């Protein structure tokens, strides 16, 4: 029996994830069943379950893809060693992309809501957001190293506050349509420079 190439396996996996994203956006995370995902993917039940044992595994895979991309962006920003406000401005570029067409923040909003009532989804959300907060800590550490923040800064505490700016911006923008990134950053710079 011929072996299936790694490229083929990856393409099938992405096909399933694309179908899941489409279903989650159209029907919502909670209302989407595995049968909906299978139908949308156009694959057999066995083919889908070969890659993912449950909807939670699919959600975790989507979350990992999104947070992985944002973490890489944050690492690129950290390498530039910018002041905190400029670093946040650069980080929010990646967040804005995820709010646009084909972006994943509408699904993230659903994950946040489900995390409040579903322990399995809560575990997925916690894992991904702890990783993102850890990535942002690099920016805070840079600010301490450069003297922008005092040497005795409680890096974990500042990172927690700094990290809250990311979902705070995304949530406001997704629910109200405002503020745009430039307005948000004007407000943030006023707060930081006071």
Q: What's the arrangement of secondary structure elements?
A:
Layout: H1 6-27, H2 34-41, H3 45-51, H4 55-80, H5 84-99, H6 105-115, H7 119-146, H8 155-176, H9 181-192
Helix pairs in contact: 1-2, 1-4, 4-5, 4-7, 5-8, 5-9, 6-7, 7-8
Beta-sheet strand percentage?
under 5%
| Structural Rg | 19 Å
Q: Which class of secondary structure composition applies to the elements?
A: mainly alpha
**What is the number of E strands?**
0
Q: Could you report the average pLDDT, rounded to the nearest whole number?
A: 93
Percentage of residues assigned to helices: over 70%
Helix and strand element order = HHHHHHHHH
The N- to C-terminal Cα distance equals 69 Å
So what's the oligomer here?
single chain
Largest sheet: none
Helix tally equals 9
Low-confidence stretches: none
The 3D shape can be described as: elongated
